[in-house]
Write a structure and sequence with these properties.
The protein is α/β, with parallel strands linked by helices. The chain has 7 helices and 5 strands; from the N terminus they run βαβαβαααβαβα. Helix 2 (40-48) runs parallel beside helix 5 (80-89) and helix 5 (80-89) runs parallel beside helix 6.
C-alpha cells in the first residue's frame, strides 16, 4: 500500500515561500494542513519522518553539495528530483508527487516520466489547482 492515503497533511517544498502562499490558502480551504521545506536536505528529513497526502515539489530548490555528490547533471540542475525520487522509493503513489518549476525542460520531463510523477509549470495556478484536485481525488495505490 502506498503512503499518505489517510494523511491530512501536504508537504510543500519551495525555497520561495512568498510565491506559493496561494497554496496555503488553497489547502486550508480543502482542510489540509501544510508542512513547508525550503531545501532538498530539509525536505528529505521531513519526508522520512512524516506521512503526507500530497507532495508539491519545486524542482529548483537548494541542496547541499554533499547531497548533490554523485548525481546526474539533471539532478544537479533540479535538486527537487531527489525529493521526488525519495518519495517514490518510500511508496508514495505517482499521483501523490507533483513536481513544478518555471522551466519547460525535456531532460527534466524525461526524469519525471521515469518516476511517473506529475509535472506542471509554475505560475499556472489554474492548471496546478486542477492537477492537485485530480491527485486528491485518486485513491493512492502501490506502484502507481
Amino acid at each position: 500500500m502506498s503512503k499518505g492515503k489517510t494523511s491530512t497533511k501536504v508537504l510543500i517544498v519551495d525555497d520561495e515561500r512568498e510565491y506559493s502562499t496561494w497554496l496555503t490558502d488553497f489547502f486550508e480551504h480543502l482542510g489540509l494542513a501544510q508542512v513547508y521545506a525550503a531545501t532538498a536536505d530539509e525536505a528529505l528529513t521531513v519526508l522520512a519522518n512524516g506521512e503526507f497526502r500530497l507532495l508539491i515539489v519545486d524542482m529548483n530548490i537548494p541542496a547541499s553539495p554533499s547531497l548533490l555528490a554523485s548525481t546526474t547533471p539533471t539532478v544537479m540542475k533540479y535538486p527537487g528530483l531527489l525529493v521526488a525520487q525519495k518519495a517514490r522509493n518510500l511508496m508514495y503513489g505517482a499521483h501523490s508527487v507533483i513536481a513544478y518549476t518555471v522551466h519547460d525542460d525535456e531532460a527534466l520531463a524525461a526524469e519525471l516520466d521515469k518516476l511517473y510523477c506529475r509535472y506542471v509549470l509554475k505560475g499556472r495556478i489554474r492548471v496546478i489547482k486542477a492537477v492537485i484536485n485530480k491527485s486528491l481525488a485518486e485513491a493512492p495505490s502501490k506502484n502507481t
